[in-house]
Amino acid sequence: MAVVVQYIVVRNGVEKMTFATKKEADAHDKMLDIADNLSAFLKASKIKLSDDQNEEIALLLAQERDTVTALLRGVAPSTASAKKKATPAKSEAKPKTTKKTPPAATA
Fold this sequence. Notes:
With about 110 residues, this protein is mainly alpha-helical.
C-alpha cells in the first residue's frame, strides 16, 4: 500500500485545489489571500462592478501580481512582460565575428 501526501487548500470550508507540495499549496493560498484583499478594495472603490466581475478582476490581478507590481512601479508593459521570458544565452546574444587576414604581399 502506498502513502500519498496531498496538500489541500481550503477556503471557507470549500476545497479549492490539491497540491503535491506544501510550497505550491502555500503559494496558491497566498494568491487567494491577495485576491480576497483586492476584492475588498474593489468593492470599497467608486467603481461599481458585479460580484462576478469583482472576483474575476481580483483573481487576475493576484495571479499576475509580478507584472502588476512592475506596472505600478512605472515599468513599461512590454518590459514588465519581457522580464518573465528567458534571456538568451551569451553565445546567442553576441553576433559572431570573423577575423580578416590581410592579403599576402606579392613579390
